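note to self: the first set is below, dont mix up w the second
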Amino acid sequence: MSDRTPADQFFDAAIGLLQRVRDEEADAVTAAGALLADTVAAGGRLFAFGAGHSSLAAQDVVYRAGGLALMNLLAVPGAVGVDVMPATLGSALERVDGLAAAVLDSSPIRAGDALVIVSLSGRNALPVEMAMNARALGIKVIGVTSVAYATRTSSRHTSGTYLKDHCDVVLDSKIAVGDAELTLDTVPAPFAPASTVVTSALMQAVMATAASALADRGIEPPLLRSGNVDGGHDWNARVFDQYADRIFYRR
């Protein structure tokens, strides 16, 4: 009988997925980082969007110590995390046709900007239309999704397409359909999701790649420092002033 605990099994599963995305998505991470660096160098702005739990990875790169100061959250009221009551309303909003267009039209995003869209399944109307409409506006789109869903589920968008079909770069998180890594005979349903761990790691890998790519071009990456270290607030104030026209989470 194995003495590996469920915690051991989960860590092993998460580590295995991280190794897969490191090895199998290396070219896509490089391309995504280069796309963000190109956008910054050209004077564009950076945005991230995710609905429900997918929003956690998007939020993790906004106003983040060690992160790019220019990354802004493109928020959809009621669909950011599980802060809406009831929480099931957020899931319902992901299936509403036309919502993405309204959000884009009322946001500061514009042609020449870049948008990272995080959606595990990539099947709902909101992320699909967000990508479609953004590209129609001249915005570059990076999709972070599990490509497996496109082969194991049906699209909920009228076009029958998925997020992955409307992106300039696709990052495949390799997460299995259902987002649960463990099973036990004594537990009636699969459990222990790893999508947040893997997707957040992919996002940070892209941010690191973008920062390095900018430095390679002789451009100082607009990075933030922790406000909990000496000099951090002064450093960030300088960055905020320098890039005030491209940072929207301070307004």
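second set (the one i keep forgetting abt)
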Amino acid sequence: MSDSKPADQFFDAAIGLLQRVRDEEAESIEAAGTLLADTVTADGRLFAFGAGHSSLAAQDIVYRAGGLALMNLLTVPGVVGVDVMPATLGSALERVDGLASAVLDSSPLRDGDALVIISLSGRNALPVEMAMHARALCVRVIGVTSVAYASETKSRHVSGTYLKDHCDIVLDSKIATGDAELTLDTIPAPFAPASTVVTSALLQAVMATAAATLAARGIEPPLLRSGNVDGGLDWNSRVFEKYGDRIFYRH
């Protein structure tokens, strides 16, 4: 690491990754946004899932001011977030075979819907099985992952495959295996993860593309407004009323 401050080094690393995904994933971002727009146009529903810290990027596009009101969070008990006690249980559940299928079979997902699955490594049983089972249900799958893990780690799914192998569209976050951008001689482990920053930016780019695509088709995108601006709550109430049958986070 150079003599510059660690904070500056981290910002430089994050900016570099953002520039890479902007340039290298542009086609996939466009395709993912178009897929979501197609789903909305066809009266389908939108869902997002992430386990552990990957759930942060999923939650960032659900019930979000400036975001599509139709994006719903698909939850797996004990896995979404790090609030489960002990927190290590969530990591263990990601490796349990059969859990994803049980969750999908009891969820509202159906033929014609779209599911965004976020998993940095893409190697655990839960995201792999979820993608496989979702596609068997004729749900379109967008995977957000670091493709590097597939060549540098061993899959934990019985099939030996990764999330990227079971998606209609893959968005590569470019995050290095281990998710730590900085090293320092006085610190024995690499540190400063950037996956949340990059993955959230990737997904917001997809959502922006979806909204603009709908508008280009003459369809007003079902966007939410901040409840902290004048008229925001009334605006959202009208959106909820119009699209209530495709919004599940209010029930």
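remember for set 2: The chain has a mean pLDDT of 95.
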